Structure of DUF2768 domain-containing protein:
Amino acid sequence: MTPALQKMWISFIAMGFMVISIFLIYLSRYKLKGFFKGLTAIIAYILMILAGLIILIVVLSGPTT
């Protein structure tokens, strides 16, 4: 697999993390209560931060040759 293709799949994983975190934030704000509300919110924000860091690394690593 070429480096460009690897970067593409890594960025797709980051976008998937963002979609999952949006769903979890929705659940924690509107559907859940108590302990599960806090747990899903923490997981969602961790996934969002992780996705942002992955995208930042992919973008700052520059173009492939």
Notes: The chain is about 85% helix and 0% strand. The mean pLDDT is 95.
